[in-house]
Design a protein that fits this description.
By secondary structure, the chain is α/β, with parallel strands linked by helices. It contains 7 helices and 7 strands, in the order ααβαβαβαβαβαββ. It starts with 7 loop residues before the first helix and ends with a strand.
Length: about 210
């Protein structure tokens, strides 16, 4: 599915919880307003070790967490032992061929790992088909702004304009939208670096 894993499997192998235990900021803000998600069905595609999946499960949601990295899923199972999470080692696009509907779909750090704009658009549109009317998408992706990829020497992400992602949801309600630069250091190599990031919270229109 991906052009390269970006060195993340190296991180998953050298750290018990590479991404940490706290959910992404977009998910955290949403959950602060939604303390009880009992009966809500969540699909976390490209879940990594599952920090977002775990946060939804802690609020009572039933979560399916999918990632192509067996090591990431192994770490997630160990770090977040919640029976409300179903862990699957699988290509995200392969999972979307299943005829299932979800109230929430999380696409954190997945889109830019695909090989082309067409693949990314197909992923998002298929995910919309798998989302119930009134459901939500959380999309976070690298965009074509400034990047320092020194911490990912073999990674070639697909970098598209922020507007590309906004346009994917032109028929739906964008509740939160940001285009900003994040600064981070990964625990396996301790190289400070930065990325330009699109963040969208979208509600599917009926």
């Amino acid at each position: 599915m991906t052009k390269d894993n970006g060195g993340y499997d190296d991180g998953y192998s050298s750290s018990d919880c590479f991404w940490g235990a706290s959910p992404g900021s977009l998910v955290q803000s949403f959950l602060e307003e939604s303390p009880d998600l009992s009966g809500v069905r969540v699909l976390d595609l490209g879940c990594g070790e599952g920090k977002n999946a775990a946060a939804f499960a802690c609020r009572g949601a039933s979560v399916t967490a999918v990632d192509c990295s067996a090591k990431a899923i192994e770490n997630g199972r160990r770090a977040f032992q919640d029976p409300r999470i179903e862990w699957l080692v699988l290509d995200a696009r392969a999972y979307l061929t299943r005829d299932e509907l979800f109230d929430v779909i999380v696409l954190y750090g997945l889109a830019h790992c695909l090989s082309s704009p067409e693949d990314i658009s197909s992923l998002i549109q298929t995910a919309l088909q798998r989302t119930r009317p009134g459901g939500y998408h959380f999309l976070v992706s690298f965009n074509d702004g400034p990047h320092d990829l020194s911490a990912h020497p073999n990674f070639s992400p697909t970098l598209l304009p922020h507007s590309f992602y906004v346009d994917q949801y032109e028929s739906h309600a964008i509740l939160t939208e940001s285009d900003s630069i994040i600064y981070e250091t990964h625990p396996h190599n301790n190289i400070p670096h930065f990325h330009s990031l699109t963040r969208l919270l979208v509600k599917k229109v009926l």
